[in-house]
Amino acid sequence: MADMTLRTITLTVPGMGSDHCAGIVRKTLERLEGVGEIQTNIANHHVRVATSENGPDGEALKVAVEGAGYDVAAVHDEREEESADEAGIEEAYLGQARKRLIIAAVPTALIMLLMMPHMFWQPIPGYLAIIAVLAFPVVFLYGGIATHRSSWRSLRNGTFNMDVLISMGSLPPYLIGLIGFVYPMTSFIEMAATIMTFHLLGRYLEALAKGRASQAIRRLLTLGAKTARVERDGEEIEVPVKELAPGDIMIVRPGDKVPTDGEVVEGESHLDESLATGESIPVYKGTGDGVIGATINKEGRLRVKATRVGGDTFLAQVVRLIDQAQGSRVPIQEFADRMTGRFVPAVLLIALASLIVWALFPEALRPILDWGATFLPWVNPGATTPVLAILAAIAVLVIACPCALGLATPTALMVGSGIGAERGILIRSGEAIQTFKDVKVMVLDKTGTITRGEPKLTDAIPAEGGDETRLLTLAASVENASEHPIARAIVDGARERGIAPGEVSEFRSTGARGVSGKVDGEQVLIGNRRLLEEEGVTGLDALGDDMQALEGKGRTVVIVAAEGRACGIVAVADTLKEESMEAIRGMHALGLHVVMITGDNERAARAVADEVGIDEVQAGVLPEGKVDAIRKLQEKHGNHVAMVGDGINDAAALKQANVGIAIGAGADVAIEAADVTLVRGELTGVVDAMHLSRATFGKIVQNLIWASGYNVAAIPIAAAGLLHPMIGVIAMTTSSLSVIGNSLLLKQRYAREQPKGDGS
Predict the structure, then answer these.
(1) Which of 44, 109, 267, 640 is the most buried (most CB within 10 A)?
(2) Active-site residue among 71, 163, 445, 459?
């Protein structure tokens, strides 16, 4: 565009629930002068529009989108207030969908209860009037009015959204059914109410499934500290984090969150950086080391100089990464949406053509009726021309009703998601199932995914002439007085080996580098090599080879000394989950290329990869790097990349991947950002989820083939006048029940084919 872009306007469109809907919105906005780049995000229902100086304002964009049949809940210039009312909009939309469903479902249930005895046992006096009254609020009032309004706007705009199909399936049957008050004929009012109710059920389930998708960003924003303690004019004062400026000196006490990104200028401590790096072991920080906002100070008092504030911080960058990944388009269109885009106008044309042809050439077509009457009792060749024309048109509309087509996908998804829930696999969207079946590359995070995410005692190597029991007794006795994760791992590991910690006196923590205390009169010192060298401990060189070998395996090593002499070393590491090897073997059996991307160092990553059989390793990767790594894999392998992760640092990459899979024991943000969540945190669930996605998608395809094939076969029969509308109602009901029944078979079939789906 010629004009310089001055602003970006964001619209919240709650009803934009699929790529088909997003495409209609984009095409509508592209028609406007002065509109540049348009980004649609069906996860959080946002449409971002770049506009020029002479381009449309927010109100004009809103009018255009509403003209396409979609309500706009909010309009924001730039991003300043965007997150303030998002939760309220989501809740309001979900509540509205629930209310419409209830208002439709109650009368429809009563209609169904009345219809069965009326049709098969005893006619009910005033039946037509009763069902007409019951169905009126379903089809015309609060239940269906929004659908018809959207349908009308869409038609006026020259587009065909899903609501056009629903209006076509509900309005004509109701209105034609009213003819029964003046002319004896079958009622189609029941069908009108049923179609609308199924539609509203689908809308509610869609809102329920997608309603929490956009919470990932809002949850991230709550992780940061709200206030900061800073030095101003020689005093410590507390200020809101938003008032911090680069260069401010912040005081971070033990247990506090670091207010914003900065650099340590005084003090030493260990910081829990798991929310940023996904690594469970706290990281040592001393003067000159950088720290990340929202990480937690475990012990020492730190003075930290603020280096990045506001939108420049690590947390803000992760927020932007997730938002960008959410808005990136997946080149997959829903099969049913593509079909309905062409199906609606085609059916309307066929119905109109049937009406005209029967009205103009009845005598040429009557031989068909004469032939059909020989074996179809409902065919009446002697009916008048207007009646034959109307019945043929009605039959086409009735038999082409989208009930079975509309049920094809949601019923299979509901059954498939139910199976998944029983097995600890939560699948958020049909798109994930559709994409998952074609995955070729499985990307795994290390910590908390392949490994347990918590340190465990792995080795205890006494010095020459020493004793392992004495080594662990001394280590556990002193560390039992500490709450550090490494200390707890040593104590728990000693207990597992049958060694109980003894009494310790004069316990002291020497900054962030180690601990000391007296055990049975012996002065014991535990810590890193630098600390023990400073304290003059002897015998360290003899342990050097063992320390180097253990560190080469990615383990954290501490030295235990008693009375100034090294007694040995103990090592802790984040150990493998029991099921990791089995899970990766299962992925290879599915033909997947398995890649591990981790923020850990190369040695530790390679050690884990070799042990479990990973195909490719990318180590030392920061969150930004993880997103880039996923993009490169997508370029290399196509849009067939899935990722499994559990930390906040994985959230953006989970969104960038074609299918994001969160380990349930991990961070809430990762779970909210993912398409699939493994509740029990077992990696074998990934293999089960892939089997389930393939089986579920197979059912969706079967349902769609049946539903569309049924229409293709039945519409010509109806147009020829051989299908009475009442038979069409019965056939349509049978078709819908067949789709539901086929979906229910998924549970039995999947249980038979995948007996180990629960990870057992």
Answers:
(1) 44
(2) 445
